[in-house]
């Protein structure tokens, strides 16, 4: 991250495309321009040989969510180069693995980078990601052991401390840390949350401290900045913070739903598992146990997939909580009627199609609403968490 | 281990690599598996559709040209190296004698994705029924839609489905027929075709089916439902590692649906991603679609829309070009630029290929007549119009903007008059710029 905001020119010449890409990335307002500049840099022979250029271009692609391109370029660079360039390529591969939730590979790559005596430029970021990785896997002791006792003051190390503090149940320290990190990044001109979503994290910490107003303010700011950049992953994370900070009442469910959709698009499985857990909590609070059960099950599957131990535990406990109060499943007839309602048909049309009386359709529907805890037709049509029947379409 | 087991292992390993963000390694793995399949005889080798996204590949089986063209298919899925991919496909098609149906299908598909429609058409005409009548009809349907002759495409695809196609081709046949029917404006039949088709979620062509469903819903003005279908299509395309919008422009379509549903942020995310990918691939059609989506996602950008019309015209992309021009005319109209709008409406009437577009051109012309140039909306009117268009009731709009229902009604009446539309249904078909 140092390398993104430094004023020192990257490659030779004034118009180095990697420097342009990094400039657009930290400003966070021109997504297409940043991606195209990064790809221009990686196509230029001069930039491909320069560690700083490679670092900037690959970081731009990763933070833009152009993971397929980042994967292809970093693999090619790893094969054709040695030394610092290869090191930056390996770092980018770790970043892609981290974003897609391949935690095992990410941690292997980071370990390699730590042991092979990584250069000063990337040491803080390697350390931050290693700590995040360990916290996600639930190994707080190992994370603690990695952090230096004396605080170096580097913003990324402050962020790592804050992440650990949050996981260890010290939200006040976490909030202070994330805010300090954010101030340092802002001072360096890095205002794009895709580089480090410190506001979303601070918002969660503020919420844990009981300061809902502050949490809402931070989340709203983050969401506005993420929308300016337009990468679905960071947008989804910011929306989940917005949902977390908004009072229960309907808007929070819609925000969760949008966050899930965006995180799916971004392949961000760790964040997805976390938002699914949050969503399940919200649904439970709204009295929608059936939907919550679906969501928790999905959250658990995703968390197991990526090896996020802490989230698996959380989902397991939640599933146990809602399973007891779970409503009976829909009968085949009810499910059929409900599916036709979801395709937009009216009761009379459904009755004609299924050869039953309109009154019967109404009866089935009433039971569907009760069993699924839905308020009515409109909710049935828009809910994405409709239990799928066995015969898939 | 039997042959099938190894293949299954490769298929699964590939999907896992993609899920873990290792797209390049997944491609290499599939490429090696295909190369092995050719050197090892006897041939019934892997189904190409197991190792890359090949919508409706007619049969398994590998030959030397098959391996070459598979590389072109991979490039097309990734969305890089259009010239080389098209070159390879063209080269392979010159070996007419040694081609099997699978290699022919893949080569023509690559040409279509690379916007080499004239070339694809020539090879398709020459091949006649050599690779089976169903293969001929389906590829013909695909090519003719792109040449702007949707009605001929419907005849071919409909005939093929009526006569019966091999099971592997059923899903694409239905999906492509539905898309062609949407182009001719026959939504009711398109819907009927898709309703009878129930592919399992694991079907390799499920993405095509979701895409077609989305287009039918979008054409019918059911934006929110269309958006869900496009996102489902995207999930499946992602699983296969398809990045290129020329293969499946689901993001551009999702952006249009999101604009209609009032989610401009999601629209811009989708449109921009396709825009960058389309520029990388370099084919005019995908670029035009992405520009169109981008223009609407930005609340209406006439420069981008003009560019979209040019690109789509160059790709001779029939209905898609008309749709972009239609939106451009609407945008200019609602900005009060009546003269420019008039020019585009005239073009639209001249180019209209089917009754649907003639009717839409007439509707625009009618609005032009009623419009005296005082049609630009105020900020408040725009906000209200966008919410109304997204399906909100007057009461919901009032709550969201902190107004009384009475005020909303008053503003909406002015909006209808200024835009020259009749009530809410008219508004749904009109485009409301937000910028």
Written overview of the protein:
The complex is a heterodimer of chains A (393) and B (435). Chain A is built from 23 helices and no strands. With 393 residues, chain A is mainly α. The C terminus of chain A is likely disordered. By secondary structure, chain B is an all-alpha fold. Helix content of chain B is 73%, strand content 0%. The mean pLDDT of chain B is 85. At the A-B interface, helix 3, helix 6, helix 7 and helix 16 of A face helix 2, helix 13 and helix 15 of B.
Helix content of chain A: over 70%
Q: What is the straight-line distance between the termini of chain B?
A: 62 Å
Mean pLDDT of chain B: 85
Structural class designation of chain A? mainly alpha
Number of strands of chain B: 0
Low-confidence parts of chain A, pLDDT < 50 over ≥5 residues?
9-13, 389-393
Number of helices of chain A: 23
Could you tell me the radius of gyration of chain B in angstroms? 23 Å
Helical fraction of chain B: over 70%
Shape descriptor of chain B: elongated
Largest sheet of chain A: none
Helix-and-strand structural type of chain B = mainly alpha
H/E order of the elements of chain B? Answer: HHHHHHHHHHHHHHHHHHHHHHHH
Describe the global form of chain A. elongated
Low-confidence stretches of chain B: none
Order of helices and strands of chain A: HHHHHHHHHHHHHHHHHHHHHHH
β-strand number of chain A: 0
> Span from first to last CA of chain A?
47 Å
What is the CA-atom radius of gyration of chain A, in angstroms?
24 Å
Largest contact between chains: A-B, 37 and 34 residues
């Amino acid at each position: 991250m140092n390398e993104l905001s430094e004023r020192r020119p990257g490659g030779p010449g004034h118009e180095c495309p990697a420097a342009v890409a990094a400039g657009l990335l930290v400003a966070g307002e021109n997504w297409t321009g940043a991606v195209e500049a990064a790809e221009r840099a990686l196509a230029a022979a001069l930039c491909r040989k320069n560690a700083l250029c490679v670092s900037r271009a690959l970081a731009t692609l990763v933070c833009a969510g152009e993971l397929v391109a980042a994967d292809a370029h970093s693999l090619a660079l790893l094969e054709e180069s040695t030394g610092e360039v290869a090191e930056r390529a390996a770092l980018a591969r770790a970043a892609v693995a981290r974003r897609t939730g391949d935690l095992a590979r990410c941690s292997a790559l980071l370990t390699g980078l730590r042991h092979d005596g990584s250069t000063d430029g990337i040491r803080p970021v390697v350390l931050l990601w290693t700590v995040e990785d360990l916290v996600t896997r639930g190994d707080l002791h190992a994370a603690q052991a990695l952090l230096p006792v004396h605080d170096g003051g580097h913003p990324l190390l402050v962020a790592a401390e804050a992440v650990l503090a949050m996981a260890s149940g010290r939200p006040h320290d976490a909030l202070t840390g994330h805010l300090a990190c954010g101030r340092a990044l802002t001072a360096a001109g890095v205002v794009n949350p895709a580089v480090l979503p410190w506001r979303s994290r601070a918002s969660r910490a503020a919420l844990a401290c009981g300061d809902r107003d502050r949490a809402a303010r931070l989340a709203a700011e983050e969401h506005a900045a993420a929308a300016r950049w337009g990468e679905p992953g960071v947008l989804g994370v910011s929306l989940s913070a917005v949902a977390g900070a908004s009072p229960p009442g309907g808007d929070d469910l819609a925000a969760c739903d949008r966050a899930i959709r965006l995180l799916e698009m971004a392949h961000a499985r760790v964040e997805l598992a976390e938002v699914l857990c949050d969503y399940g909590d919200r649904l439970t609070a709204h009295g929608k146990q059936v939907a919550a059960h679906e969501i928790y099950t999905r959250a658990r599957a995703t968390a197991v997939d990526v090896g996020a131990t802490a989230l698996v535990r959380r989902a397991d406990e939640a599933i146990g909580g809602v399973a007891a109060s779970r409503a009976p499943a829909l009968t085949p007839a009810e499910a059929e009627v409900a599916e036709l309602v979801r395709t937009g048909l009216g009761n009379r049309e459904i009755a004609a199609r299924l050869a039953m009386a309109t009154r019967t359709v109404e009866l089935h529907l009433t039971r569907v609403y009760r069993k699924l805890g839905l308020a009515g037709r409109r909710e049935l049509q828009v809910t994405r968490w409709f239990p799928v029947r066995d015969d898939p379409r | 281990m039997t042959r099938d087991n190894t293949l299954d292992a490769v298929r699964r390993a590939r999907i896992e690599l993609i899920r873990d963000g290792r797209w390049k390694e997944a491609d290499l793995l599939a490429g090696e598996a295909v190369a092995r399949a050719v050197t090892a005889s006897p041939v019934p080798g892997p189904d190409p559709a197991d190792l890359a996204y090949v919508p409706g590949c007619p049969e398994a089986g590998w030959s030397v040209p098959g391996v070459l063209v598979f590389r072109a298919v991979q490039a097309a899925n990734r969305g890089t190296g259009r010239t080389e991919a098209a070159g390879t496909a063209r080269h392979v098609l010159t070996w007419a004698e040694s081609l099997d149906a699978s290699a022919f299908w893949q080569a023509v598909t690559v040409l279509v994705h690379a916007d080499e429609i004239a070339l694809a058409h020539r090879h398709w005409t020459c091949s006649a029924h050599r690779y089976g009548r169903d293969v001929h009809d389906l590829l013909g349907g695909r090519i003719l839609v792109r040449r702007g002759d949707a009605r001929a495409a419907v005849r071919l695809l409909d005939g093929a489905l009526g006569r019966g196609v091999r099971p592997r081709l059923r899903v694409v046949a239905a999906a492509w027929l539905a898309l062609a029917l949407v182009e001719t404006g026959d939504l009711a039949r398109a819907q009927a075709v898709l309703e009878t088709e129930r592919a399992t979620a694991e079907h390799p062509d499920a993405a095509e089916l979701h895409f077609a469903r989305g287009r039918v819903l979008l054409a019918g003005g059911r934006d929110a439902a269309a958006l869900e279908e496009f996102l489902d299509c995207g999930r499946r395309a992602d699983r296969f590692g398809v990045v290129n919008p020329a293969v499946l422009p689901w993001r551009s379509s999702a952006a249009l649906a999101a604009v209609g549903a009032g989610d401009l942020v999601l629209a811009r995310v989708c449109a921009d991603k396709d825009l960058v990918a389309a520029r990388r691939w370099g084919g005019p059609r995908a670029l035009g679609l992405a520009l169109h989506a981008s223009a609407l996602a930005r609340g209406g950008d006439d420069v981008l829309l003009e560019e979209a019309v040019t690109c789509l015209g160059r790709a001779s992309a029939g209905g898609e070009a008309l749709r972009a021009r239609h939106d451009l005319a609407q945008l200019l109209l609602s900005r009060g630029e009546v003269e420019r709008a008039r020019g585009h409406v005239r073009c639209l009437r001249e180019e209209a290929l089917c009754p649907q577009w003639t009717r839409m051109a007439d509707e625009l012309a009618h609005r032009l007549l009623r419009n005296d140039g005082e049609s630009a909306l105020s900020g408040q009117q725009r906000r209200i119009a966008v919410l109304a268009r997204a399906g909100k009731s007057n009461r919901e709009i009032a709550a969201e903007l902190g107004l009384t229902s009475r005020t909303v009604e008053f503003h909406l009446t002015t909006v209808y008059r200024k835009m020259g539309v009749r009530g809410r249904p008219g508004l749904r078909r009109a485009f409301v710029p937000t910028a």
